[in-house]
Structures are given as structure tokens and as C-alpha cells.
From TrEMBL:
It comes from the Eukaryota. Residues 62-278 form the GH16 domain. Keywords: Chitin-binding, Disulfide bond, Glycosidase, Hydrolase, Signal. The lineage of its organism: Eukaryota, Fungi, Dikarya, Basidiomycota, Agaricomycotina. One of its GO terms (cellular component) is fungal-type cell wall. One of its GO terms (biological process) is fungal-type cell wall organization. The keyword RNA-binding does not apply. Transmembrane segments: none annotated. One of its GO terms (molecular function) is hydrolase activity, hydrolyzing O-glycosyl compounds. Residues 22-68 form the Chitin-binding type-1 domain. This is Glycoside hydrolase family 16 protein. The keyword Translocase does not apply.
Amino acid sequence: MHSLAVLLPILSLSLPLLVNAVATCNVTTACPTSAPCCSEFGFCGSTQPFCLGGCNPLHSNKLDSCSPNPICKSAVHTFADNSHVLSNASLFDGNASAYDFIVESGNIMNTGGDLAMLLTKENGGTRISSTRYLHYGTVTARIKTGRWAGVVTAFITMSNVKDEIDWEFPGNSTTEGQSNYFWQGLVTQPNHGDITKDLTDTFQNYHDYTIDWQPNTLTFLVDGKVVRTVKKSDLTVDGVTQYPTTPARVQLSLWPAGTASSAAGTVQWSGGLINYNDPDYVSAGHFYALIKSINITCADPTPPGADITSYVYGPNSSTNTPAVLLSNTSTNLGGAMGMHGHAGAGLQLLLVLALAAGALGQLL
Ligand SMILES: *[C@@H]1O[C@H](CO)[C@@H](O)[C@H](O)[C@H]1NC(C)=O
Ligand SMILES: *[C@@H]1O[C@H](CO)[C@@H](O)[C@H](O)[C@H]1NC(C)=O
Ligand SMILES: *[C@@H]1O[C@H](CO)[C@@H](O)[C@H](O)[C@H]1NC(C)=O
Ligand SMILES: *[C@@H]1O[C@H](CO)[C@@H](O)[C@H](O)[C@H]1NC(C)=O
Ligand SMILES: *[C@@H]1O[C@H](CO)[C@@H](O)[C@H](O)[C@H]1NC(C)=O
Ligand SMILES: *[C@@H]1O[C@H](CO)[C@@H](O)[C@H](O)[C@H]1NC(C)=O
Ligand SMILES: *[C@@H]1O[C@H](CO)[C@@H](O)[C@H](O)[C@H]1NC(C)=O
């Protein structure tokens, strides 16, 4: 029931990300030209961790300071081994053909058919992100969740401007899943959280959890059965439609909500403080959640042509709705876009996905 946008900074303590940071960025202060990219954690820089996945265009120096976001590609990802998962995210160069997922923080294992995300007392939890983005589509994760108080298993989509769609599983209950969604990181009161009950043990059994994100409806399913439908047309507040509309990565995580540094409400929501004397932890040396497969089916409103490589942001298409454009610019650092993550030179915006055709006119 909590926005990971708010809670994930817990996982960001991995220091390499911060070493080069010269400034912080937020809704009132964008990054300077010397360090143009605003990382997902609100720090400015000009290199890989700042300009790639999660880079927020709205708080960066320019709308095109962030590296372009690799285009969606439909695929069923399975984990006979972890060869398509890059375990050291700082080695990622933006080439989404080389890896399907990167480990943003924490540690993974392979159990012979499952990717295991580990949580230890020391590692602050594990989060993996898809290297590609999707701009609408259907994502199904076949997983076994954790089962320990304070330990949360999550399967979400997260955009660079913090449009977010969640399935979350607080570990003290293995019979329910919680769905939620956020528009540009806005935490509403009450929030949009909903609980799906009466699942068979989510630790013992695989279930298929689906986020079916289409331009006008958002549907949550368990094992192919619809459990919740949200309509975009119902979400207009003061003339602004608060519905996720921007390209997002698929992220799965096992994270420690039940720690002394978490907000009291977060600890309570997750079922209490984590017990590292739990027999499961003592015997294995970690807590874990298992991923059997991740099925991604793209549903781009305008099907991208063969030469399209990425999504980029353009000027707002309507009030508070950034335009999403298709581009043929390389997503690789060191590729066509140069070493510093500027997408500016040579950027060709080919198609306007957003409603306002006018946005294209302004850009060209
Ligand atoms: C935004 O960042 C600026 C510059 O670092 C800082 O002075 C300001 O307090 C921040 N504002 C918010 C709302 O966090
Ligand atoms: C990840 O790669 C970076 C850059 O090469 C290196 O400095 C770091 O030690 C690596 N981290 C791990 C855990 O291997
Ligand atoms: C990206 O990775 C693929 C697969 O490993 C490789 O064939 C290709 O050459 C790489 N592209 C660049 C520009 O490095
Ligand atoms: C999990 O923890 C929450 C918050 O403390 C509590 O309301 C709920 O009853 C607990 N569920 C189970 C199955 O223990
Ligand atoms: C993947 O998801 C799509 C869309 O929901 C579905 O049509 C397809 O059958 C799924 N593939 C597998 C192997 O489950
Ligand atoms: C464009 O939309 C963003 C995201 O909601 C908002 O922060 C920004 O103020 C808008 N810009 C303009 C010029 O309306
Ligand atoms: C992108 O498309 C334009 C127009 O067709 C072309 O001139 C340019 O070379 C392409 N750039 C890349 C990196 O493919």
C-alpha cells in the first residue's frame, strides 16, 4: 500500500551512485548543465547511473538530458540460468540487447530454474529492473513470495517520472496480494491500494500476477482471473487525469520494510520488524523470493517501426502530461549519444505518441 517511489531510497544507500553527485534535483530545482541528469534518487550527474534507467527528465537540465529509454520488446523471460541478468548494474552501458534485467542493488542466485532475490541483514534487499521500458502492455510475473514479517516482495512497473503500478506482498500474510498505482509519485489520501484475498499460500505456490496496463484501463489479474479494474476516465481531478501514461521499467524486489529506519506506518504495514533469528534465515543465511518467469507483451499506442530504438520525452502534450515520443537514437552510452548522456545532437523524433500532434511541430 506504499509507494516504492517513496520507500526505495532505502535501497539506494549503495554509495557508488552518490560519489559523483554534485547537486540534488527535485520539483523546484533542476540539474545544472555540468551534471545534467537527475537520477531516480534525486542526484545530478553526467554518467551512467544518473543518465540511464530511472533518470527523471522533468528534473534534469533538459527534457532530453536523460539517455533515451530502450523500446519495449515482447518476450517471455525464463531463468534456466541468470545469463540474461547483469548482476553488477554499474557495468550496464544502456545496451538492452545484451541483458534483459540488471540487479540495481542486492544479490541474486539461481536455484536451477528460478531467479532468487535475496535479502540479508547487510544487503538492504534486492531489486532487479528490466533494461527495456514498456509504454503500455501486459506483464505477468510467475513468482513465489517471501513469508516473513517485515519483508516485502514487490512486482511493479515504474516510470522515470514515477508513474507506478504495483503488486506487493507484505511477508506476514501469504494469502493476499496488494495492488496499487501512482501518478507521477503523487501519494493520495486515501491511496489507491486494494487487497486481493484468499490466495493459496503465496510462498509455497507459484501464482501468475498480472499488470495489464492499457491506455484507458488498468487491470490486475491473479492466475488469469481479473481481480481489479481501474478506468482512466474515472481518474480526473481538477482537470488533470491522474493515470500512469509514461514508459516504465518492470521491477521486482525483496525489500526490508520492517527496519528501525522505516516510518512507523511502513513497519506496521509490512507486519512488524524483521526477525533475523527466524529459522529460515538462520538455515539459509538469507530471506528470498523466487521468480519463475516474466512475460512482457508490449501494447504501444503507435506500433514502433523497425528503426525505432527508444522512447524520449517531449514538451507536455496536455496539462501535466509529458509527451512520449519514439526515437531512433541509440540507447547505448558511448554510442550515437556521446559519453555524457546527452540525447540532444542528432536526435530524430519520428512519431508523436501523445495526443497533441502540436508537440511534434514544436520540436522539429
Ligand atoms: C530541492 O533541491 C534544492 C537544491 O538542492 C534544495 O535547496 C531544496 O530544498 C529542495 N527542495 C525540496 C522541496 O526538496
Ligand atoms: C561493479 O563494477 C564496478 C565497475 O567496474 C566495480 O568497481 C565494482 O567493484 C563492481 N562491484 C561488484 C560487487 O563486483
Ligand atoms: C549490444 O549487445 C548485443 C548482444 O550482446 C551485441 O551483439 C551488440 O553488438 C551490442 N551493441 C553495441 C552497440 O555494443
Ligand atoms: C500482518 O501485519 C498487519 C500489520 O501489523 C496486521 O494488521 C495483519 O493482521 C498481519 N497479518 C497476519 C496474517 O499476521
Ligand atoms: C504472455 O502474455 C500474453 C499476453 O497476456 C499471452 O497472450 C501469452 O500467452 C503469454 N505467454 C505465455 C508463455 O504465458
Ligand atoms: C509539464 O508536466 C509536468 C509533469 O506533471 C509538470 O511538472 C510541468 O510543470 C508541466 N510543464 C508545463 C509547462 O506545463
Ligand atoms: C534516424 O533516422 C533519421 C531519419 O530517417 C536518419 O537520418 C538517422 O541516420 C537515423 N539515426 C540513427 C541513429 O539510426
